[in-house]
């Protein structure tokens, strides 16, 4: 015998294998209104444990990155668990910035017990207002005026006594003090009258010399006395200043004593109050009304001077409305803050120092310091969208610096990178004690892990959100409970049990697996909302299964313009797809197009041509840079398959070309490798392939057909073409056996299969597939390695042997012909 064949008969899948129905009878409720609100998380056990661990682990660096596809509920789940944990945490301290009287450009940060910062700021405003009234009043008091007059009288008496003593001694020597346009001077006198120059010249020369000498002596004394007068005035001013400070100190001490008693257990606050007291006494002129030009800070005038005594509250953990008692709010306050920052710029994270225009210049002070998200979340939790964070310049580096230093330092981006040298504020850093939660796509997480060495040190915990979960009766009930909770929360109509079952089935379709359910809750929630809208248009009180199906159909219709256009071009013959007849070396392959959230299948014609060559299978897509690396890998596997099966001990003298006909864009993935192999085997064996069948599946070197993605969309894509042209009963699709569990086909496809108008064939090997496609047995080798006569593999082997013989003939004949020409 030349060989034997294994008995194998292709079997199409049963309708029950094409769609796994959710039996609504498993639910013991009529509508979701009967279900209680869900108190557990659906399908995210691993992520939940990671979040709980990150919250409970109070060590440096144990911040969390939640990674998962958009719509899996990362933010809502984070917020839910964080708020629950925060409710049991202590309320953190309030924080404020105050003036540093020694170095005004370095404001001081003060921590106060939660809920007391706002009151402290009001107390300081009240203190300044009281001092504005009390200080001018004390200077108008009778006691102060009396003491001031005594100092003035003492100063005048000192001056008058000095002049009087000098005048008396001068008069005893017939000399007097006179005022001249040039100031005070001395003149000779006779009998109480000042001598004129003529009269003085009539005196004897001896008398004149005597008088002049005494005048010079008294002149020196007068000049010495005049030089002492500024010193006496300074001493008088100093005594007056001491008097003023003594008077003001009593007022300030009385006013500040209450504040010091209230904050006796806060040394830093007491130290600040001492500095306030010294500053008020030192600058008491600011509290006395003046008609001079405006002085002071950004606001100018006296108010500008009083800004130095304000308290800039940047974190208030006792927010209250006007006229409310903060002490009562503070006692009622509970839990740590939970902050979500949706615009995480560097300034919004770390805070900033704003500026005001003052006489044409930009000025700032500690009152213009504004808090960031880290300030508000300090002592609690901060949630940030990772993508938004990385869209902002400098924000990621600034966050890392804060986490490394465990301190919030307000800085200008230009200063951080040495681009600006302008002197500005340098606020004292505030200690940071907050848990940071980032949420983003898995690709972003893995890129950070790979390229940022600091990332894993600062974000040690990853919460990996899954996009699907096991499909069981319990998970179906969880779906129902979730839907019921959503309906009550958003005031939607309840769903009856059949509608819930249809949502569960759609969840399996979204997961591309009949044994799984999608955890992309964004899609499920949107479906429920849209079904509620359609039920409302029908004036229904509950959402029914047909409303859910109508919402699914409407969503598809809104998205399938491109699919419809491609399908139209196939029907018009612009895109050539045959659904009847047979052809050698041509097969209908299936591809999936992904447009945002919408995917659809499209059949493509794959053709193959063979000739004598050097064992190469040429991928035309790759040659023109339209084929991706995975597609090229699949083509290379074909060469290995042929060589192993048909040319193990001899050369593979083959040159084959494979191409996706009418393909004008890139081709990627290996899901067409089995299809290309069928076309290649058909071209080699010269057995035609049935065009009423389409194929999908990847292949390994041993000829096993492997699972692929998008199997539902691929089947439906070819079905739509066949249905439009008319179902003949012999049309169908070949899929990998491993993909059977993924089938959740449309109801019209299932119904056509139930009526025998369309067929889905599962295959495990290339031999099984080629037998279905050609109607000719593939053939298995006997003990001598020979394939049966009239089998595909026998024909392929014979064709390859013929190529090898021809190649050998050319290799031997060509040299002889060359020698003959040289001899001639």
Per DSSP, what share of the residues sits in E-state strands of 2 or more residues? 15-25%
- Give helix % range: 40-55%
Low-confidence stretches: 1-5, 291-295, 328-332
The class by helix and strand makeup works out as alpha/beta
What is the CATH topology descriptor of the domain at 577-805? Ribosomal Protein S5, domain 2
Give the CATH class of the domain at 577-805.
Alpha Beta
What is the 3D form?
elongated
What kind of sheet is the major sheet?
A: 7 strands, mixed
What is the alpha-carbon Rg in Å? 48 Å
pLDDT averaged over residues:
84
CATH architecture of the domain at 577-805: 2-Layer Sandwich
Number of helices: 29
- Distance between the first and last residues' Cα: 52 Å
List descriptors.
single chain; 824 residues; alpha/beta; Helicase, Ruva Protein, domain 3; Four Helix Bundle (Hemerythrin (Met), subunit A); Ribosomal Protein S5, domain 2; 7-stranded mixed β-sheet; 30 strands; 48% helix; elongated; disordered N terminus
């Amino acid at each position: 015998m030349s060989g034997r064949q294994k008995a194998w008969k292709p079997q199409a899948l049963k309708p029950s294998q094409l769609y796994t129905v959710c039996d609504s009878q498993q639910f013991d409720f009529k509508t979701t209104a009967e279900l209680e609100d869900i108190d557990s998380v659906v399908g995210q056990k691993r992520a939940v444990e990671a979040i709980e661990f990150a919250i409970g682990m109070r060590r440096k660096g144990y911040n969390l990155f939640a990674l998962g596809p958009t719509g899996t509920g990362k933010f809502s789940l984070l917020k839910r668990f964080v708020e629950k944990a925060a409710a049991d945490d202590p309320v953190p301290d309030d924080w404020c910035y105050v003036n540093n009287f020694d170095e005004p450009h370095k404001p001081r940060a003060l921590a106060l017990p939660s809920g007391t910062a706002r009151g402290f700021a009001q107390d300081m405003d009240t203190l300044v207002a009281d001092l504005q009234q009390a200080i001018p009043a004390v200077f108008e008091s009778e006691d102060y005026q009396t003491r001031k007059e005594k100092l003035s009288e003492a100063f005048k008496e000192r001056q008058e006594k000095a002049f009087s003593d000098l005048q008396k001694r001068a008069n005893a020597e017939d000399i007097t003090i006179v005022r001249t346009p040039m100031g005070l001077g001395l003149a000779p006198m006779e009998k109480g009258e000042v001598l004129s120059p003529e009269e003085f010249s009539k005196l004897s020369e001896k008398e004149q010399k005597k008088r002049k000498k005494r005048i010079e002596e008294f002149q020196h004394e007068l000049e010495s006395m005049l030089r002492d007068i500024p010193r006496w005035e300074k001493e008088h001013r100093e005594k007056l200043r001491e008097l003023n400070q003594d008077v003001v100190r009593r007022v300030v001490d009385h006013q500040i004593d209450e504040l010091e008693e209230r904050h006796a257990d806060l040394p830093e606050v007491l130290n600040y109050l001492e500095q306030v007291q010294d500053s008020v006494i030192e600058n008491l002129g600011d509290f006395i009304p003046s008609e001079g030009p405006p002085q002071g800070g950004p606001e100018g005038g006296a108010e500008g001077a009083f800004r130095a005594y304000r308290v800039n509250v940047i974190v208030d953990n006792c927010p209250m409305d006007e006229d409310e008692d903060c002490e009562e709010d503070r006692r009622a306050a509970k839990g740590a803050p939970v902050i979500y920052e949706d615009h995480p710029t560097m300034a919004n994270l770390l805070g900033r120092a704003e500026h005001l225009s003052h006489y044409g210049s930009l000025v700032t002070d500690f009152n213009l310091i504004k808090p960031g998200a880290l300030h508000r979340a300090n002592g609690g939790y901060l949630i940030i969208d990772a993508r938004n964070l990385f869209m902002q310049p400098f924000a990621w580096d600034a966050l890392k610096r804060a986490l490394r230093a465990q301190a919030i330092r307000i800085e200008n981006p230009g200063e951080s990178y040495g681009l600006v040298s302008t002197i500005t504020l340098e606020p004292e850093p505030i200690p940071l004690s907050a848990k940071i939660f980032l949420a983003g796509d898995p690709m972003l997480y893995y890129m950070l892990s790979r390229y940022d060495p600091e990332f894993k040190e600062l974000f040690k915990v990853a919460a990996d959100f899954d996009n699907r979960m096991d499909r069981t009766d319990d998970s179906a009930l969880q779906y129902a409970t979730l839907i019921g909770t959503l309906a009550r929360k958003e005031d939607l109509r309840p769903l009856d049990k059949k509608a819930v079952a249809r949502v569960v089935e759609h969840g399996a379709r979204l997961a591309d697996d009949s044994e799984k359910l999608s955890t992309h809750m964004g899609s499920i929630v949107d479906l429920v909302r849209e079904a509620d809208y359609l039920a409302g248009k029908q004036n229904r009180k509950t959402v029914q299964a047909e409303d859910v199906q109508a919402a699914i159909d409407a969503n598809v219709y809104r998205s399938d313009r491109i699919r419809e256009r491609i399908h139209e071009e196939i029907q018009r013959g612009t895109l050539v797809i045959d659904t009847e007849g047979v052809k050698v070396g041509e097969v209908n392959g299936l591809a999936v197009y992904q447009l945002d959230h919408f995917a659809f299948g499209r059949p493509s014609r794959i053709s193959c041509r063979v000739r004598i060559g050097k064992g190469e299978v040429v991928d035309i897509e790759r040659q023109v840079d339209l084929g991706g690396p995975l597609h090229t890998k699949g083509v290379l596997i074909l060469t290995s398959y042929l060589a192993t099966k048909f040319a193990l001990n001899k050369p593979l003298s083959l040159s084959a070309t494979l191409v996706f006909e009418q393909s004008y864009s890139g081709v990627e993935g290996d899901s067409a490798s089995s299809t290309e192999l069928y076309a290649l085997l058909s071209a080699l064996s010269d057995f035609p392939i049935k065009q009423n069948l389409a194929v999908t599946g990847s292949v390994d070197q041993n000829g096993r057909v492997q699972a692929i993605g998008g199997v539902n969309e691929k089947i439906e894509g070819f079905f739509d073409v066949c249905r439009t042209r008319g179902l003949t009963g012999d049309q169908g699709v070949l899929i990998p056996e491993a993909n059977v569990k993924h089938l959740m086909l449309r109801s019209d496809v299932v119904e056509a299969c139930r009526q025998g108008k369309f067929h889905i064939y599962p295959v495990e090997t290339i031999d099984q597939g080629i037998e279905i496609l050609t109607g000719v047995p593939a053939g298995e080798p006997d003990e001598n390695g020979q394939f049966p006569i009239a089998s595909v593999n026998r024909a392929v082997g014979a064709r390859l042997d013929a190529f090898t013989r021809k190649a050998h003939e050319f290799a031997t004949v060509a040299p002889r012909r060359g020698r003959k020409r040289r001899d001639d």
